């Protein structure tokens, strides 16, 4: 019996699990509406809202349903970074963006992400570069990286995991100084790639279908994890996600690139669409990796 072309667990429910926020359309500062705490958790998870360092009066609002001034600021920051109309209100465009499946890596880490917007004078590119680096910036000291596979759940043979990951690495190798080599599963490696579900030992639990798809560490963390509850495919249809598209994105994180929120067509954009293939690096992705490692 042939294996399916996707990997997923039993359904966690129909529809989009981010859909619990749909009824909040139109909410704004000063209101208290059931479910707003979910928006706070969402914006906190992805780096837009942090009550931890605030005084106790603000801290008390972290888990409630009050649309306070801090939530309004976080919504505005989210809108600005996704090139939406900056209103501070949960309008339909903002909620639609929040409900898209996305990478689990936060868009901001302690507000220290380095954002670059530079004109490139290289004859190969005639664009304004939009790209982000992780704090530091984080970089690999060597150009030869090894990787191995270690999954806590079975991965269907039909996904051609090794071939797909090799192709994803090759896309970055072609535009940078990096080389990538697979090593046996019991070897030491710079990068460890695997499929997992729910809690899987890295304090960043996966959350089931149609939410966060995968996440990866910046240099030199070297972990790249895919949520096994998603419907992965090498030729995606509706409700399936293209494995190579997400792998190319996560490898960008592994190499030190953060999310690029200004260019939806960029590999390093934070969200994805089911049934779509987006495997090609854009000029901004290429410029980002070259600037980060001084390859211009």
How would you explain this protein's 3D organization?
With 296 residues, the chain is α/β, with parallel strands linked by helices. The chain folds into two domains: 17-98, Muramoyl-pentapeptide Carboxypeptidase, domain 1; 116-292, Collagenase (Catalytic Domain) (3-Layer(aba) Sandwich), CATH 3.40.390.10. The protein has seven helices and nine strands, in the order ααααβββαββββββαα. It has a five-stranded mixed β-sheet, covered by helices on one side. Strands 1-2 form a two-stranded antiparallel ribbon. It has a two-stranded parallel sheet with strand order 8-9. Strand 1 and strand 2 (128-133) form a beta hairpin. The protein is globular and about 55 Å long. The protein starts with 35 loop residues before the first helix and ends with a helix.
Task: Describe the SSE topology.
Blueprint: H1 36-45, H2 56-59, H3 69-81, H4 92-98, E1 114-119, E2 128-133, E3 144-149, H5 161-173, E4 179-182, E5 191-196, E6 214-216, E7 223-227, E8 232-233, E9 241-242, H6 243-255, H7 283-292
Parallel strand pairs: 3-4, 3-5, 5-7, 8-9
Antiparallel strand pairs: 1-2, 6-7
